[in-house]
Amino acid sequence: MTSTRKRGWSLGGRATTHDTVIDISSPTLRKTLSTLPALQVSTDTGPLTQKASSQVNSMLAQYPHTSSCRSLHMELCIASPSVKLIRDELQISKSIPVFGENDRVGGQVVLDPSCHHSGRLSVTIEGTFQFTSSGTEAVGDPSYTGKETKDRYAFFTSAKVFPITPISPVSPMAESPRPTSAIRVRSLSTRMRRWPSFSSVESAQGRGREARFFPFQFDLPISQQPGQELPKTFSASTLVGTGTRGRAFVESTSISYKITALWEPTDSHENRAQLEMPLLLPPDNDLPRDDCAAPPDFWLEMPLISSISVPFQSAITLPSPANFSRSATVPYYVVFTTAPNSLQLAKDIAINATISVTLVRHVSANIASRAYLPPSPPMSPSSEAEDSDSSSSYRMKPSRRRPFFGRVVSTPKSSHPSQILEEATSPINGGGEVRFGIHQNALHAQPLRSPNPPLSETRNLKCQVSEGFPKRPRRRKDQVQSATEPSKTGLPDGLFKGELKLDKDMLPSVNWAGISVKYYLDVSVLYRGHETRSRISLGIL
């Protein structure tokens, strides 16, 4: 008789907590074992996982298109009403989600079964404005008032944080599986009977760890003030020439949105994982059009003002409203009349006056309030020093660093409950509350570093200068018949007709929570030291 001393199994199929001596050579025992049902382990999602899966399916079913990107640890899926196909550097087609102003941005993050330990999953949506100008001010050129800048400003930030607890796989030797268990033990009768080995138990536990789904959804901010509109996606890089010496510089501007999923395990020996997916918010007039194809319905005349008394009056006339597409042309009329009426003075002004029309752009960014992102793990003093030198305001440093000899510096863990930011909406977007929750293994929420310094740049984009007023308005027939004096006709003494051709790479007008891009027309009429001028606001779509 051969006896083996190991953690035994009772005849009823229950795992015992004491050691038992089993006589394998006994014929009676073998006959008894042949009549017992075998144990088979099958994986089941369970009611909780099925509920989360149904929420994900209903969210993804709202929109017909789904874009995804994946890594070894997780997968990010975003549902959208439409997509745009682009090719990367390797000529591989990728779909980018496209959303409208009133759409909701939602999707899911799928964690791989290998991420079964505790940690934190954060999903962040962010809208940024980046302005890069490497120009150098030219000597004697007053049109450029900026300086060398390369700044990135976040005008919208919202985040969701999911605290992750480790998965505890259910043993197939449990007494009775609970209804919500992910592993169900079923008994099947077969002729072949064998003892369960430790390798089979471990494989069953591995099958018990399944991918976990974490749905998320964000609302795009809505303006609370008239005249404000969420900026649309834009990107352009242009070569700009300015100055008397013909100096040129490159100017890059972009307005972008993205979704970032970040997995941060509590164990410092595990690797973090991060996925990013860009979002597109195209403007309503994405297709190029020519606003000059049809004449405007209304024209608005605005007077030019002088600080001193001058012997003439002048004005500029523009279409109303003064909103133009980047591929359009801005038509305008500049007129003048003498006061009091003088035919000789009118002829002299029409010949010697100088008309100047300049398109001016003013860019400003001032994000004064601090935004909050998902809480970052505490770092060692050395890693904090490295983090302070980083130029990015939103880059998260890992909680461990590897010295030259490969030793890992572990981060001390907190022994008391702390607060985490479960859902945060940046106060700079005009709304939203910050809600906090308590989690045992959470880390302290930390604010971002100081925002970039305020940006202010003004530059002349286009300029037209004309000598004199080449045209004189003609009177209509009804005016000629009814008017006996020229002063009663209301017609100006001189007229100049011009137009400014816009550029498709121009940055559109922006007015949103600390980010401002404005365009103006500076118009002036100069005659023998007497000048009238005015600045009119334009909207570039």
From TrEMBL:
Region (Disordered): 371-434, 464-494
Highest taxon listed in the record's lineage: Eukaryota
Official protein name in the record: Uncharacterized protein
